[in-house]
Amino acid sequence: MQIFLNVMVLLLFLSFADAKVLKLSSIPIPLMVEDANNGLFIQLTKEIAKRNGYELDILVQPPGKALLAFSTNKVQGFFPALDDSVPKVSAKSTPFYYKTDYVFYRKGLPLKTIKDLEGKKVGLTFRYTYSQDLLNNRRVKFEYSPEDVINMKKLARGALDAFVVEERSGQKALQISGVQGVEFDRKAPLSRLKVFYAFQNDDEGRQLAAMFSKTIDEMKKDGSLSRILAETK
């Protein structure tokens, strides 16, 4: 019995010693990245890591710190990444999501297109990535806030004419804020951007990007990707 226990302890030790740890940085996003253990994108990342025998060390930080950790090679990867959000050349996975932004507005005062937003005060969330067509329109008056919930409250009380935000993050912020009289038109998306995992542009990073891409493609085929991202709290 003692020999058996010693063998089990040794095997357990070896399994921990051989474990591959993947260190990633991310940013807090309502519903998607709640903290290092919760959120739809967190659950997806956990599943990808599990399928490939990795343990995860996820740092969820404000955007500036999260991107700095990636740009200074303190982490192996960053997510959710968009083409205009990553500050340096990176190895990219295949897209696992599309950031579809909508205009949230006060009920009875619909604003749905970039043209509609001209001359209006429009809320954006600091350090989020938006379409260049929107940002480059100098007729739109942008006002930034540190988080979605603040923007939603400002919109509800009339401090903003509109708030541009990703659909599900916006709905979550609307729920958390508890405000009334705010809506959006699901049939009128403002923009659609690819979302992927970004890794360091070295041999290891390119291998990780290929591994993540392969697993994402497999999860698309077996339906698990859509099941994970369709979950709600």
Verbal overview:
The protein has 233 residues and is of the alpha/beta class. Helices cover 40% and strands 24% of the residues. It has helices at 2-18, 40-51, 63-71, 114-117, 132-135, 148-156, 167-177, 203-222, 224-230, and strands at 20-26, 54-60, 77-81, 91-92, 97-106, 121-125, 141-145, 162-166, 182-183, 191-199. Strands 1, 2, 3, 4, 5, 6, 7, 8, 9 and 10 form a 10-stranded mixed beta sheet that branches. Strand 1 (20-26), helix 2 and strand 2 form a beta-alpha-beta unit. The chain is elongated. The termini are far apart.
List keywords for this structure.
elongated, single chain, 9 helices, 233 residues, alpha/beta, 10-stranded mixed β-sheet
Radius of gyration: 21 Å
Proportion in helices: 25-40%
Q: Please give the count of helices.
A: 9
- Quickly give the structural class: alpha/beta
| Main β sheet profile | 10 strands, mixed
- Oligomeric status: single chain
**Average pLDDT for all residues:** 92
Query: What letter string, H or E per element, gives the SSE order?
Result: HEHEHEEEHEHEHEHEEHH
Name the overall outline: elongated
